[in-house]
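Forwarding the complex inputs:
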Amino acid sequence: MLPESDTDDAYQLDAQVGYLLRLASQRHAVIFQKLVTAGLTPTQFSTLIRVWEQGAVSQNRLGRLAAMDVATIKGVVDRLRKKELVRSEPDPNDKRRTTIFLTDKGNALVSTLMQDGKRITEETLKPLSPAEQKTFLSLLEKLI
Amino acid sequence: MLPESDTDDAYQLDAQVGYLLRLASQRHAVIFQKLVTAGLTPTQFSTLIRVWEQGAVSQNRLGRLAAMDVATIKGVVDRLRKKELVRSEPDPNDKRRTTIFLTDKGNALVSTLMQDGKRITEETLKPLSPAEQKTFLSLLEKLI
DNA sequence: CGGGTATCATTGGTATACAAATGATCTGGC
DNA sequence: GCCAGATCATTTGTATACCAATGATACCCG
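Prediction (whole assembly, four chains):
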């Protein structure tokens, strides 16, 4: 009897891309937490980089740039503001908008964070050879 | 001036493995939600498969098998119980433990879910050629 | 210029996800 | 047999993450 399938292949959770992506993200999160400055989370990190890239950006647009829902980006910005890494101001030209900026403290942190980010990526990819790393990243980009 | 780095390489958030993993997971989540039966989440799906593989399993061990924290697995099991896909019983041999089982309804769902799972993985990997898919999965496994 | 449509930020709801602390229970070693 | 250390499940707290609804505002087109 083969109750689990109408083909010869048994289902293997451990071979499904979604499950593997979750495990890889978990491992990355551990490495991130160990190596990042100032106790930032990966989401806060990405958000800060995007603000730095933009200089000034509305909150919703920041969410799109950092790939976050409006509700998610709000919470992230709130917490970055509490850490005094960003500040927000109402847009004088559009009363719907709030513009997000880096504070001096946030600005001073960015170059350190970029160094952190490189080491985090290095450490995460360490199980792969340099050639494999290149291949992996390029396939991962194709997947998005 | 190169304010962002002491090397020639500018920092690219879009090239960092953690950020790419997050985007890939987001895309997978959308595909998952579209193709899965019974409105399950990826976590609930994985948990249900693990219970099916084990037949009977304590809640904490189930968490380890499905790669979830004790607090996370508790919530997942609670919600699966509310959907009447699993049931739990106190372990007569160890009063600390709660044993988790599939209900008949849960058991009946599993083979459908496995078919779903295969289609979800297929759809997620679709941007890659068959050879690339194999390479990607094998590199992803190496990364964990 | 006025009204329908789009965008913005917020809010409430649900679901992961993990750390830390707690009380109950079990187990290994003496 | 007892006790120190381990394990189990729960709870609390924080942080993503997304959907849906809402009210305010902006924009476009006729």
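The radius of gyration of chain B is 20 Å.
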